[in-house]
Amino acid sequence: MKQTCFVCQNVDCQSRGSEELMKELTTEVAEKSIDAEVKSYICFGGCDIGPNIVVHPQKVWYAGVKKEDVPEIVAALASGATVTRLDSADPALKEIVFSLLDAGVF
pLDDT tens, 54-102? Predict the structure, then answer.
C-alpha cells in the first residue's frame, strides 16, 4: 500500500530542522525504492513536539524527530512497523489530523 510521509514545514518545525529531515527522508526512500512519497505539510498543530512526520494512510505520527531517527523511520516504512518511541503526540490531536488526512485535506 502506498504511503505518504507528510513532513511539517511550519516555522516551529523548520527551526528544529524539518527541511533537512524532509530532504534526508526523500533521499533514503528513493534509494531504497520504498513505496512511499514524501511531501511537505503546512502544520499539524503539534508545534511544541516537532518536528513532526505523519504517515498516511497508516495513521502513524512521529514527534520530535531528529536526523538520526530517519534511518529507523525508513526501515519502518519498508517493513510496515512503527517507531513507537517517537509516538508522543496527543491522541485527540492525532484523531483530528488523521480525520483531515482521511478526508483528503492535504
Answer: 999 999 999 999 999 999 999 999 999 999 999 999 999 999 999 999 9
Q: Which residues contact 90 (CB under 8 A, 6 or more apart)?
A: 46
Residue 15's contacts (CB-CB under 8 Å, 6 or more residues apart) are none
Give the CATH number, domain containing residue 58.
3.40.30.10
Q: Is the dihedral of CA 98, 94, 17, 29 positive or negative?
A: negative
Spatial distance between the Cα atoms of 77 and 83, rounded to a whole number of angstroms:
10
Domain count, the chain: 1
Q: Is-cis flag, bond preceding 51, omega within 30? A: yes
Residue in this structure with the C-alpha cell 482521511, named with its chain if needed = 102
pTM comes to: 0.94
Q: 17 is in which domain, residue-wise? A: 3-102
In the chain, which residue ranges form alpha helices assigned H by DSSP? 11-15, 18-31, 70-79, 91-102
